[in-house]
Amino acid sequence: MAEGHIKWYSEKKGYGFITSETEGDVFVHHKNVRDHGYFGLVKDLPVTFDLRETPDGKQAFNVRASKSS
Questions:
Q1: Closest by alpha carbon to 5, among 16, 17, 15, 19?
Q2: 10 Å Cβ neighbour count for 24?
């Protein structure tokens, strides 16, 4: 599992980006956020996620708030 922080996220648009020291910027879509109703994706929130390479670039799946948050 990779770790990073929310770079920016728009609830209205339903997507944003995570920044990670090892992976760079990674796209995140609302459908790939676990327990989304229990926390909001706000700037600098530490998260863990699974990473997949897609035709459009890196994408985060199974995004969760980090235990340290």
A1: 19
A2: 12
Residue 57, both tokens: 């670039």
* Contact indicator for 40, 14 with CB cutoff of 8 Å: no
Please write the tens of the pLDDT for every residue from 7-63. Answer: 999 989 999 999 999 999 999 999 999 876 656 789 999 999 999 999 999 999 999
* Amino acid letter, 12: K
Round to whole Å and give the CA distance between 54 and 61. Answer: 11
Tokens, residue 4: 């990073």
**Alpha-carbon distances of 48 from 5, 12, 55, rounded to whole Å:** 8, 22, 22
Domains with residue ranges and CATH for the chain:
2-65 (2.40.50.140)
- Count of positions (residues) in the chain: 69
